[in-house]
Amino acid sequence: MRNIEHMKGELFALVDEARKVLDDAKTEERALTAEETEKHEKMMAGIRALEREIEAETEFQRIEAMKVDRDSDPEKEGAEWRSLAEFVQTVAYNPNDPRLA
């Protein structure tokens, strides 16, 4: 499992760097050089890739959290009777069983 906050930090750093390339050209009142254009396009591709990774990891973690919640739900654990005999025995000998509530 990847750390989403770490990935967001990488994303924000890349956005700042891409913004700086544009701002430098704007401050100097000129168009981007071919080298700057290539660098900016690579950074934008990296930004889009990180956005997709963050979105995918967020979705994975959301789904995994649902699984953990379902697996650890005390209401679900042993909530069903295996047989009528088990139910009758529980009623007779264990009236405080939470399944009887």
Strand content is under 5%
Q: What's the main sheet like?
A: none
| Topology as a string of helices (H) and strands (E) | HHH
Low-confidence stretches: none
Please give the number of β-strands: 0
Q: Give helix % range.
A: over 70%
Distance from first to last alpha carbon = 39 Å
The structural class is mainly alpha
In short:
With 101 residues, the protein is mostly helical.
Helix and strand arrangement:
Elements: H1 4-27, H2 34-71, H3 84-93
Helix pairs in contact: 1-2
Explained architecture:
The chain has helices spanning 4-27, 34-71, 84-93. The mean pLDDT is 89. The chain has 3 helices and no strands. Helix 1 (4-27) runs antiparallel to helix 2 (34-71). With 101 residues, it is mainly alpha-helical. It starts with a helix and ends in an 8-residue tail after the last helix. It has one domain (4-76). The longest helix is centred in the middle third of the chain and has 38 residues, at 34-71. It is rod-shaped, with a radius of gyration of 28 Å.
Keywords:
101 residues; 0% strand; mainly alpha; single chain
